[in-house]
Amino acid sequence: MTLSKDEILRYSRHLIVPEVGMEGQLKLKAAKVLLVGTGGLGAPLGLYLAAAGIGRIGLVDFDVVDFTNLQRQVIHFTKDVGRPKIDSAAEKMQALNPNVEIVKHEVALSSENALDILKDYDLVVDGTDNFPTRYLVNDACVLLGKPNVYGSIFRFEGQATIFAYEGGPCYRCLYPEPPPPGLVPSCAEGGVLGILPGTIGLIQATETVKLILGIGEPLVGRLLLYDALAMRFRELKLRKNPECPVCGEHRTITRLIDYHQFCGVPQQPPKQESKLTESEIEVTEVKEKLDRGDKFVLIDVREPHEYQICNIPAAKLIPLGEVGKRLGELDPEADIVIHCKSGMRSARACGILRAAGFKHVRNMKGGILAWSDQVDPSVPKY
Amino acid sequence: MAKILIPTPLRQFTAKQDSVTVPGATVGEVLAALTTEYPDLRKQIFTEEGKLRSFVNVYLNDEDIRYIGKDAAPAADGDTLSLVPSIAGGTH
To answer: Going by DSSP bridges, is the β-strand pair A297-300/A335-339 parallel, antiparallel, or unpaired?
Structure first.
């Protein structure tokens, strides 16, 4: 393998660094890296890894670009809204560096396809957004003996490390089990500072390039924590757990399992118009109740900063975290309708009220997003 | 007295404070004092049987307490405890 005249010019600032040089640039060109996810972390990763001249970059994503992605997923542009992320990302990376081979895997990574997709790559970069896929990527990397360059973010904080590197600790050594669904909010629920995935994604990109070049000290056996608000990096020791079920001495996981079941999240059923259950109410019916002047209480269980973005004026704001403490403000015999953004938190609030003996509690199906779609389009969506 | 660093997802249970200082001579005592002061935090980091949840790690300075004696690890004045829950965000 050699570099063309054009490539020598393109990579000249690498070639004149002694630690990289021609030998290092050829290592990058020979490398095959799989990038799982082309979102917040995947965006800077994809751009910089393509620019650096990684020979083959595989992308895994089956999502579509939407407007709420643009605040941080800098590989996708406004014109890309509605397009598959994988096409949008591949196009930008190819435009940035035509020398790079981009392989598109437009699938949801699963126990059935993961080993087959991962096996052709030297290392895997985890830029996913959910626990089932993170455990799947981890286990597949451990089983195949491939390093897993890990990064994860929440609001103003990020974590990064390299798992499964030459028999080192894996994600299960750090966290044997995922949190139950609903306890830890996702970016969609909890929000994220748009720049944060850039910082963490580029730490992953740095570690990827270092591993390929074989230079420096890899981020192995250390968990790097980043707090953007304090602008502070901390490092914690990450040890291999001898009792780890997938990489420990007495391993019990020797093949991929059902990760949705493991994480307690049922696999998303195919989209269909779900029937209204007895404990739910359509937004249109809530509107009719308001117009008729029915006697009922409408409660919004979102956070105050969400209420400021948009609200239904008739609704009383009681954030989910306060519902338990503020039951005294409500009449257990009253007709109560609860809403949130999309219906998840309000379902939990309904459960709390019913458990406390409230008799007539219903969840407004689809939340204020459905209200915006079906009742009042002037209500902004977020 | 040990300082406990509270990560963003758990600050809603500690009156929005990013660090809390409580008394205690061992990690177990410090965590007990913390969850007595902020009872809503208890359910987040302990199971009903009082065991640390498996998606919340506790570090004494930079050491995972699972490898230095767990609850019994001595916590001296000036030590820092960190609660580090798993977070999954990345794409959406």
So the answer is: parallel
pLDDT band for position A269 (cuts 50, 70, 90): low
Share of chain A above pLDDT 70, in %: 96
In a domain, residue B92? The reply is: no
Count of structural domains, chain B = 1
| B54 CB within 8 Å of a chain A CB | yes
How many whole angstroms separate alpha carbon A222 and alpha carbon A353?
Answer: 44
DSSP three-state, residue A233: strand
B7 contacts in chain A (CB < 8 Å): 157
Query: Can you state the angle between helices A42-52 and A85-96, rounded to 10 degrees?
Result: 30
Amino acid at the residue A186: S
Q: Give the residue numbers spanning the domain of B6.
A: 2-85
CA distance A176 to chain B (A): 6
Does A174 have pLDDT greater than 70? yes
The pTM of the whole model exceeds 0.90: no
Dist. CA A138–CA A125, nearest whole Å: 10
Q: How far is B20 from chain A (nearest CA, A)?
A: 16
Mapped onto helix, strand or coil, the DSSP state of residue A271 is: coil
Phi and psi, residue A224, nearest 5°? -90, 125
Q: Give domain limits for chain A.
A: 31-262, 280-374
CATH number for the domain harbouring residue B52: 3.10.20.30
**Domain assignment present for B91:** no
Query: In whole angstroms, what is the distance from residue B75 CA to residue A237 CA?
Result: 17
Specify if B26 maps to a domain.
yes
> Is the residue at B90 inside a domain?
no
ipTM surpasses 0.95: no
A167-182: b (≥16 Cβ within 10 Å) or e? ebbbbbbbbbbbbeee
A225 near B CB under 8 A: yes
CATH architecture of A31-262: 3-Layer(aba) Sandwich (3.40)
A280-374: CATH superfamily: Rhodanese-like domain (3.40.250.10)
What's the CA gap between A38 and A85, in Å, rounded?
A: 7
Residues 6+ apart with CB under 8 A from B87: A152, A153, A154, A157, A159, A184, B9
Record: contact B92-A63, CB cut-off 8 A: yes
